[in-house]
Amino acid sequence: MQSHEKEVIRVLPALPGLWEKGHIKGLKARGGLEADIFWSNNKLDKIVIKSKFNNKFDLVYLDKVVPVNMLSGDTYIYEPQNDKTTKH
């Protein structure tokens, strides 16, 4: 995950081919964000993002850009295979 660009979060921009399946929990990103990322067959299955603050950013995975608007305490889930987004 990369968050060095202003208002952009890139998910799995350089996943090693040997990491075919896995997950990472508790990744920190700019703006008080925390993410859990799950993948299989070298593709993103799901990302769960929690926000400590109000945040607005673009979530980028491959060529897909998803605008995200979160309030403090929100949880956002993105599943690219279904093009499904959920906000709690």
List keywords for this structure.
mainly beta; 5-stranded antiparallel β-sheet; Immunoglobulin-like; globular; 3-stranded mixed β-sheet; 88 residues; 8 strands
Strand order in the largest sheet:
2-3-4-7-8
Integer average pLDDT: 93
Radius of gyration: 12 Å
Provide the succession of SSEs.
Answer: EEEEEEEE
DSSP helix fraction:
under 10%
Anisotropy-based shape: globular
Q: How much of the sequence is in beta strands?
A: over 45%
CATH topology-level name: Immunoglobulin-like
The biggest beta sheet reads: 5 strands, antiparallel
The CATH class assignment is: Mainly Beta
CATH superfamily: Golgi alpha-mannosidase II
CATH architecture: Sandwich
Structural class: mainly beta
What does it look like?
With 88 residues, the protein is mainly beta. It has one domain (8-87): Immunoglobulin-like (Sandwich), CATH 2.60.40.1180. It contains no helices and eight strands. The strands form two sheets. The protein has a five-stranded antiparallel beta sheet, with no helix packed on it. Strands 1-5-6 form a three-stranded mixed beta sheet, with no helix packed on it.
